[in-house]
Amino acid sequence: MGHSALVWDHRTAIEVTKDLNGIDQVVLRNPQGASAWVSLHGGQVTSWRNDRGEELLFTSSKAIFKPPKAMRGGIPICFPHFGNCGSLEQHGFARNRIWIIDSNPPPLHPYDSHGKSFIDLVLKPSEEDLKCWPHSFEFHLRVSLAADGNLTLISRIRNINGKPFNFSFAYHTYLTVSDISEVRIEGLETLDYLDNLCQRERFTEQGDAITFESEVDRVYLSSPNIIAVLDHERKQTYVIRKEGLPDVVVWNPWEKKSKSMIDFGDEEYKQMLCVDGA
């Protein structure tokens, strides 16, 4: 009796389209119907849907999609620094630049390729970038969508001319939640954190889990590599796994700050939470 098997070809699961501003965006799909959208503006994941079509990433209804403004939502890439840093723009310039598709990426391991689609992007500094941050680099980003719907981002930063430089980096991940007051984060209890609402004063987390009743903007130090975000109302858990990123940033602007941001709805803080490997 003969045998037959469906062979998954990740290349057929990738589509390149253009957004409303004519910027290329890459759509990844898996055999079960999950999808991820990646914009070449910022190398930013703008959408991640599960096999039921439910959106897992938050994007503000007031987000500005036109360069050079960074889009409020998805997973912005913060590089070469995270936060405010002197003359450089907030969270660095990588999220505001046009990336290119890597024409010769490293292959997937055969045992890791079944049902997975992926795209490799590259960012190289422009002459203007080198004027404000004079370091030669190549930033290689792989975004992959696995057969089980898991989304993975892998970054490699290459020093081109061998002169050492320092940088900071974060995946500024906007998760969509049903109601922020019904959400808790597990895995950060007992850790020290820097509170950006108190001039980065250092505190120790006292709760058995992090819950939300007001604005939160904290950097949890030396955090574990697995953190869980539990959405009780939706009966859904995000499991965040990270490697090589020591800290976790937790941010929700709450009511007052939301009203001060032009690209964020007044009430949208209730439906989002940023949990960033940094």
From TrEMBL:
Catalytic activity: alpha-D-glucose 6-phosphate = beta-D-glucose 6-phosphate
InterPro entries: Aldose_1/G6P_1-epimerase, G6P_1-epimerase, Gal_mutarotase_sf_dom, GH-type_carb-bd
Enzyme Commission (EC) number: 5.1.3.15
Cellular-component GO terms for this entry: cytoplasm
A Gene Ontology biological process term: carbohydrate metabolic process
Enzyme class: isomerase
Binding positions for substrate per the UniProt entry: 72, 90, 95
Sorted UniProt keywords: Isomerase
Family: Belongs to the glucose-6-phosphate 1-epimerase family.
Name of the protein in question: glucose-6-phosphate 1-epimerase
